[in-house]
Amino acid sequence: MAMIEFQDVQKYYGDFHALKDINLKIEAGETVVLIGPSGSGKSTLIRTVNGLEPIQEGKLIVNGQDLANKKTDVNRIRKNVGMVFQHFNLYANKTVLENIMLAPRIVLKRPEKENKELAMQLLDQVGLQSQANKLPAQLSGGQQQRIAIARSLAMRPKCLLFDEPTSALDPEMIDDVLNVMKDIAQDSDMTMLVVTHEMGFAREVANRVIFMDDGQILEDDTSDKFFDGEPSNERARQFLGKIITH
Asked: Which residues are in the ABC transporter domain (predicted)?
């Protein structure tokens, strides 16, 4: 069974047709990257997967649950679908360790000893165990984003969504975040759906590359075919040409 499946999904903001006829299946364990120009619908699409944006038509099945069904418990889906945003959304008045431990404590009722041990393991995984007792404001943007990733992993989700996780960072901080994401993709069976402008990451890590424009999926290829072959869609070829040129 696919982890995520869009079936003829339509999304509107008033009269604006934001997502058009989206049909997409993502299998468990895949790393799929969404690319395309600004305003193409990438972030809207990813935000529908955990119910942050409702769809108006079609079916959206996530981990066996149909988000289009009003009886579906969205909070139950979110236990298994983590999300890392462009901005870190850490609690400013809580330490790094407390930020990571909070959701598992409240939502999963995880025992405190186990919760702290896992949080420290995750801090070690993202290279920030020494920062456990600091407040977010004492960390760089790149460090805060790595904490946000650790916080999402603390729920032990089956799927992680990344909505342009490096776009708010200074250039020298981007690699540290991307390296953590690469480790997750390569060393676990996590399903990852990533909106990004980082073409090096997409080329190296993605199983598939989805190209979107004007609310539509115009290209769905393996990473090798998209970057080393030639996209079949003319708009995707133009986009790729500009990326490579610049």
From this structure: 4-239
Say if residues 195 and 52 touch (Cβ distance below 8 Å): no
Residue 225 lies in a domain: no
Nearest to 194 by CA among 91, 110, 84: 84
Q: Which residues contact 205 (CB under 8 A, 6 or more apart)?
A: 31, 33, 181, 182, 185, 186, 223
In a domain? residue 226: no
What is the extent of the structural domain holding 134? 81-156
pTM above threshold 0.85: yes
Q: How many domains does the chain have?
A: 1
CATH, residue 140: 1.10.8
| CA-based end-to-end distance of the chain | 40
- 62-108 confidence digits (pLDDT tens): 999 999 888 999 888 888 999 999 888 899 999 999 999 999 999 99
